[in-house]
Amino acid sequence: MVQVIDGKQIAASVIDKVKAASAELQARNGVRTGLAVIIVGDDPASHTYVGAKSRMAKDCGFNSVQYTLSTETSQEELAALVTTLNADESIHGILVQLPLPKHLSSEAIIQSILPEKDVDGLNVVNVGKLAIGDMETGLVSCTPAGAMLLIRRKHGEDLSGLTAVVIGRSNLFGKPMAQLLLNANATVTVAHSRTNNLPHVCRGADILIAAVGRPEMVKADWVKRGATVIDVGINRIDAPERGKGKTRLVGDVAFAEVSEVSESITPVPGGVGPMTIAMLMANTVIAAHRTVGRALKIF
Ligand code: NAP
User: Fold this and answer.
1) Of 82, 99, 116, which marks where a domain is finished?
2) How many Cβ atoms from other residues are within 10 Å of residue 118's Cβ?
3) How far apart are CA 253 and CA 106, in angstroms?
4) Is residue 97 flagged as an active site residue?
5) What does DSSP say about strands 207-210 and 228-231: parallel, antiparallel, or unpaired?
6) Residues in contact with 27: Cβ distance below 8 Å, sequence separation at least 6, in sequence order
7) What is the best residue among 193, 196, 201, 236 to mutate for testing ligand 1's pocket, by most ligand atoms within 8 Å of CB?
8) Looking at residue 146, which CATH number applies to its domain?
9) How do residues 45-99 score in pLDDT, each as one tens digit?
10) Ligand 1 site, residue 192, Cβ cutoff 6 A
11) Could you read off the pLDDT of 130-166 as tens digits, one per residue?
């Protein structure tokens, strides 16, 4: 019987720890954890994500500040806001919601965020720290950090002897995921659109992680019996069975058929998704603790 990994429940346990850590920081040091979220433009999906992040930050007892900027915002104006927030001692985490409107360079903006406030873990300093296995002073990208927590709950801290395949090599997910797995001693393969015979590569995985953006691409015959399958994809597809014009979310894994062969699997929605926002809160309270010289381990 397959184990469906309950990301909502595990995310809730992370949030409980974040709330306790932020309350303790305020009580002991008089420091209220501060998160600034910047959104540029009016993309509805981005507004939904940002709204959820700001609400969760408030729920965690943070000072949650949201900057909603118009689509016409210039590179200089956005850069000036980041500079101001970098210097603001009440702000411990800065998140710029991606994607930015096309006329803005997201890379320049991300790299201008102070590494110690880069709670999305995308600054090259944090990427480099992850690459050399420094988990003490860096900040790790939220979605891979969340996926790794789900994997650890199943397999423990040490993945020695286990083979992991990550499908997808983005800076946001695939590469940091591979680093986290490698740091935990897994034997890691990163597959992508130029990989030959992807089903064969995937069948070698004890832990298979899909982050592609193609609905239900991973089929049952791609999966080793007894594998752990982590589905990162979020794809909206037509669902005429629910009525005219209706849609539903699916992952990159064909959930029903892969459930027949895997030992554990994350659902979409309710798997990796809730972990992302929980890890953002965790990174922010970790960053706040570091400002008073305390190392905080939440996961
Ligand atoms: P991305 O930047 O578009 O990267 C997609 C990766 O998939 C690329 O490395 C690409 O290979 C690879 N790929 C594309 N088609 C392929 C194919 N047919 N076979 C093998 N590999 C293929 O996407 P991303 O930002 O990593 O996100 C991936 C998915 O995760 C999306 O569905 C996204 O919505 C979801 N996501 C979810 C969360 C969450 O909170 N749960 C967070 C982030 C992302 P190349 O490099 O060769 O082009």
Assistant:
1) 116
2) 26
3) 30
4) yes
5) parallel
6) none
7) 193
8) 3.40.50.720
9) 999 999 999 999 999 999 999 999 999 999 999 999 999 999 999 999 999 999 9
10) yes
11) 999 998 899 999 999 999 999 999 999 999 999 999 9
